Amino acid sequence: MRISTNQLYDRAIKGVLDNQRDLSHVQQQLSSGKKLLRPSDDPVGASQVIRLTEHLDQLKQFQENNNLLVNALEQEEVVMRSLKSSMDRARLLTIQAGNGIFAEQDRAAIGIEIEQIRNEVFDLMNSRNAEGEYIFAGYQSHSPAFEYNPSSPNNKYNFVGDDGQNEIQISPSVRVKNGDSGKAVFENVLARLKSDITGSTATSANMKIGVQDAHDFFHKKNYDQVTPANNNFQITILAPGDQASVVNTGTGVNFGSFSYSADQPFVFKGMEFNINGAVGDTVDFQLQTPEKKNIAETLNDLALALGNEDITDGAYAEAIADALVGMDNSLKTLADANSAVGGRLNVANSVYESNLDLEISNKLARSSIEEVDYAEAVTELSKQENALQAAQSTFAKVTQLSLFDYL
Length: 407
Prior knowledge:
Number of helices: 8
Strand order of the largest sheet: 5-12-7-8-9
Number of domains: 2
Largest sheet: 5 strands, antiparallel
Low-confidence stretches: none
Shape: elongated
Order of helices and strands: HHHEEEEHEEHEEEEEEHHH
Distance between the termini: 25 Å
Strand content: 5-15%
Mean pLDDT: 85
């Protein structure tokens, strides 16, 4: 095959340029640390790098969400811890106030401290986070969770938020609540369950709850929310006057007979009855409707009872009993909520560690595809340098193969 002078030069130049291009490519890899300088270098690898980068960006956002979640839960945990401390102190003061030896001045002094604890608890129930949002207000986080209405005849401390709970996504499949509604933590707390005498044909009849736990068990088992008539009971003095029976007047269920003696108390399901009557006399009593009362309202009622100089001994004892049961129920609800917060913190920590492992794994995978192997690249650089030098030397020798050089 005949090769013209132009072809000879063109081929030589092309060889030199190709070697320069390859050498430049290796130099760019070494200077940038990237093996893939453009998608055409490895189309499949480039697409994998894009997917891995997207996943890493997503993991980064999840970790930032996790930090926000942990901060919110830890702040809620601190508030709950403070609430428990205040409520424990209030409970201790309530027990002291009910010991029967304190004078009116002592009760009033305890009442003043209870008022201060009530105000502290009310402020904690309206705690805010760093963004100024109310922690326990649910979705209504820009307004207080609880409000004080001094003109209200009954409940002065009312929940005005909602029961919403925001969630934060911390992984593709895990969403965790970042707080609790005050409705669940403070408002949905059962007050002391009660029963009252509603009618009697006996000369006298009175009742008090002697064993609260036994009464509560009976109340919860027999209270009918749908049919109020089934909450009515009747005690009848049986002949010859030393027995009394208890019947549910709504359902007709007979709870049996019990020993009875006039003016001698007897206990039925935790309720202590003192009845002075004859054979055939009846005493009607009713299970009261369960009520819910938040801890601020419970403390407020207690403070009012402690400061009331005209309160009777019976009403005072009832106020102390109401306060103790309300505090115990509130502490239990608070403990349950605190446990839930701790559980969420454990989940957040576990997911955070899992995301870190995924981040390391994905970075290694991306590095193996995208980043340059310096030992391999340096070797390739030396090879390309030698190839370029050979091309240049060959070109110089070929251009000297002319008859004019030998004339």
